[in-house]
Specification:
Helices cover 47% and strands 0% of the residues. The protein is mainly α. It has one domain.
């Protein structure tokens, strides 16, 4: 699989902070290449923490 296979992730502003697991995404969404709300929420928290430490 290539990153281009993950359609939901292309335009995501949190992708640099994401620790996506296709297995977890599949369990929660039924699609290997989809997105998972919990994973996206965690990536958002990590991004916010990173940005707050930089400022």
């Amino acid at each position: 699989m290539k990153f281009s296979d993950f359609e939901d992730c292309h335009s995501c502003d949190k992708k640099e902070f994401c620790s996506r697991s296709s297995g977890l995404v599949y369990l929660n969404s039924g699609k290997y290449t989809g997105s998972d709300k919990h994973t996206c929420d965690v990536a958002g928290i990590v991004k916010d923490m990173y940005l707050s430490e930089k400022s």
